[in-house]
Amino acid sequence: MKYDYLIIGQGLAGSILAYHLLKYGKIIAIIDERESFTASTVGAGLVNPITGPKMVKSWKSEILFPFLKDFYREIEIETDTKFFTERTIYRPFGSVEEQNDWYGRSSRINYQMFLKRICESGAHDSIVNDQFGGVEILGYVLNMALFIETMNKYLVSRCNYIETHFNEDDLEIGRESIKYHGIEAAKIIFCSGYHIRDSKYFGWTPLVPVKGELLNLKMNSDFETIYNRSCFIIPQGKGIYKAGSTYDRKDLTPVPTLVGKNEITKKLDALLKTDYEIMNHAAGIRPGTVTRKPLIGVHPEHRNLAIFNGMGTKGVSLAPFFGKQFTKYLEEDNNLDEEVDIKKYYSLYFKTHFSIGI
Ligand SMILES: Cc1cc2nc3c(=O)[nH]c(=O)nc-3n(C[C@H](O)[C@H](O)[C@H](O)COP(=O)(O)OP(=O)(O)OC[C@H]3O[C@@H](n4cnc5c(N)ncnc54)[C@H](O)[C@@H]3O)c2cc1C
Predict the structure, then answer these.
(1) DSSP letter string, 215-238
(2) The total number of structural domains that make up the chain
(3) Do 56 and 37 share a structural domain?
(4) 54 and 136 share a domain?
(5) Ligand 1 binding residues, C-beta < 6 A
(6) What is the pTM of this model?
(7) 7 and 152 both lie in a single domain
(8) 27 lies in the same domain as 156
(9) Where a domain ends, among 142, 167, 187?
């Protein structure tokens, strides 16, 4: 049997791209070695439209947000599993100036769609320090570990799913198809997260892996709001919360560290008023990029090799929209957003592969 696509990796990127391609009627094989701690199984799943220290509207959020909401809800219905929740994100202000700035922003149309309300001082002071008030934002949370597990069952029943390590050296690239250990497919798509940096086919793309650590906490207080200033606290139900995270570009071992734990608890102690107990501690490596935009497209020489990667810190919001766009690009030759298309980096490939010594 010849497959339309062989997908390497069933993290968030591979799961979502496979879903879109299946909806398109494509025949798919997937290889994933099911590592225990990946960005997708460890990630906090927060979908926040207004991010960063300066709290600016995140890239394309006005397009991505309506899309992702319908996308995850559709899979919830199809799989009869609840993994996606709407939540209020409360961001306490750090000063009176910040409060004034937010009163100004609240009149702007591109902020209005995400703003719930601006709160006076003390609105959430039973939980967090908010002496200058804060802003309530509309957000979502994806239970990432449950989503990956649900998608695993979904894909196992609809694709040829092979749980093993993919070894690039065994890949045979032909004109019309690729072959790997007896599997023949028209195209292969690499959704292998930060491991793509070791690929001889796509290692030239500007990937910047970023390690992240998270703590699972237990508290006596029970709240549903997400709190976010310097670090986030996300309710998981039954008095359990996720708190994080860290950003480390140097240590790329996917194991928790004392330094990471101390960094999170220091930020938590500045934000949170209630006591907490640390239940456990996890780490994963995000496939970040130089531009903080995904890396999507086809190989400059081998047109049957493609990549869907670089989801960085925002995979939950980026992957649904760009998964659909990439499917239409592959199947209908539709446009791919030039900000995500790896075409703009082709010169890096040619420089590293065809440089002629003078
Ligand atoms: C601590 C932390 C917190 C985060 N919080 C958020 C958040 O709140 N919101 C958000 O949107 N994003 C968050 N992220 C980022 C998010 O997790 C990523 O954007 C996303 O999970 C990336 O998915 P991926 O599929 O590209 O990569 P991965 O999750 O790394 O998946 C890659 C898959 O490929 C498989 N694979 C790789 N190489 C091979 C091989 N050779 N053979 C077989 N299989 C292979 C792996 O087993 C894995 O399953 C967070 C990440 C971390 C680490």
Answers:
(1) EEEE-SS---SEEEESEEEEEEET
(2) 3
(3) no
(4) yes
(5) 8-14, 31-35, 38-40, 42-46, 165-166, 191-195, 212-214, 244-245, 284, 286-287, 309, 311-317
(6) 0.96
(7) yes
(8) yes
(9) 142
Domain region containing 68: 47-142
148 touches 40 (CB < 8 A) = yes
**Shared-domain flag, residues 70 and 215:** no
Same domain, 236 and 307: no
Residue whose tokens read 């559709």: 74
Q: What is the CATH number of the domain that holds 248?
A: 3.30.9.10
| pLDDT tier for residue 357 given thresholds of 50, 70 and 90 | low
Provide the pLDDT for residue 163: 98
Crossing angle for the helix pair 144-156 and 12-23, nearest 10 degrees?
A: 40
Domain identity same for 136 and 262: no
pLDDT tens digits, one per residue of 64-96: 999 999 999 999 999 999 999 999 999 999 999
Give the span between the Cα atoms of 179 and 275, in whole angstroms: 56
pLDDT digits (tens, 9 = 90+) for 174-204: 999 999 999 999 999 999 999 999 999 999 9
> What is the largest distance, in Å, between two alpha-carbon atoms of the chain?
69
Q: Which ligand 1 atom sits nearest the alpha carbon of residue 13?
A: 25
Testing ligand 1's pocket by substitution, the residue of 144, 161, 170, 189 carrying the most ligand atoms inside 8 A of its CB is 144
Residue range 233-263, pLDDT digits in tens:
999 999 999 999 999 999 999 999 999 999 9
For residues 247 and 202, membership in a common domain is answered with no
Contact 128, 228 (CB under 8 A): no
265-286 burial, b if ≥16 CB within 10 A, otherwise e?
Answer: bebbeebbeeebeeeebbbbbb
